[in-house]
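Crash report, auto-generated. Payload:
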Amino acid sequence: MTLSVQQHRLSLSMALCLLLAACSGPQDVRESRFIMGTLVQFTVAGVEKDKALDAIRAAADEMQRIEDDFTIYGTHANAVKAFNASTPGQTVSLPAGVDDLLRMARDVAHQSGGAFSPVIGSLSLLWGFSLPEAPASPPSDDAIARARSGSDIGKLVMAQAGWKRLSNQTMLDFGAIAKGYAIDRGIDVLKKHGIANAILDAGGDLRMIGDHQGKPWRIGLRHPRKPGATLGWFEASGDISIVTSGDYERFFIYQGRRYQHILDPATGMPAGLSSSATVITAANATLADAWSTALFVLGEKGVPLVGAQGMQALLVDADGVLHQSKLTLLPFHPSTQ
Ligand code: ADP
Ligand code: MG
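Recovered output after restart:
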């Protein structure tokens, strides 16, 4: 008799569990991978764990391939490094993926008046923010002037059968756009695996699809000067990219001055007008990534320019003042702390 009461209780509580599971759906699956020098976080909602993990594994592999194909660092040979070592004036044909991304990057370079430049490689290598050994002091003025001489988009020429660089100081650097591109490719892979609800967050550069258990995803925007704090948040569902370029991750302080990794191609120096530049768009993370870097360089005057591209801009300038574009895709909710 006692036994049957216990059995009854057991089956009741099991039924309750199943009911709850059916109501709330499968748990979110969260995974992190270190790719492109940053912690990439995958969050997948609404599917069984095994299916989510398979999709995440494939997406992470694809993103790693993009890093290998586009990086100018390390010893792995790729077409970008080969171009950067090519004889100036000689036409080099680039693989389709690199060619496509370079065309997109060149367009943003022109639209942003040169604030974004995909041929900033000499300057990036000279400053060395992405090298394994972080720099502690700025390079010499002469070295900056020499590297800067190759960094204008006009020094890159598209020819019939490929591309040519006009100076040996003209080197490709996809550092400001490849992460967004990798996010887009990662999202494509997730979708191909039947994932409809996910966030792919590569260190503050993210794209989301779908929603979170029928409710909008909630995304915090990091405070550029208060570690661990948020500036505010967005709520969104559907396909949206939110990409931020900031001065708080790769920088050094030398003689009381902050030197950070986003460079102004016009001066060869770290851009000094912004501390955080966010671009929001329904287009894709590639464009949002390129434009967030351009916005960071341009500062406040870049805000209407991003708006005119059909994207939303949110800029914290060097004095900590927030500027927003008139065009609003997602309302921004400032934090109250
Ligand atoms: P993060 O890498 O922090 O997401 P960005 O997307 O803004 O930031 O990319 C910064 C990287 O882009 C730098 O490390 C450098 O490789 C490259 N870069 C720096 N300044 C520029 C620029 N003005 N235009 C294009 N690329 C840049
Ligand atoms: Mg960028």
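Post-recovery validation: The chain has one domain: 1-337.
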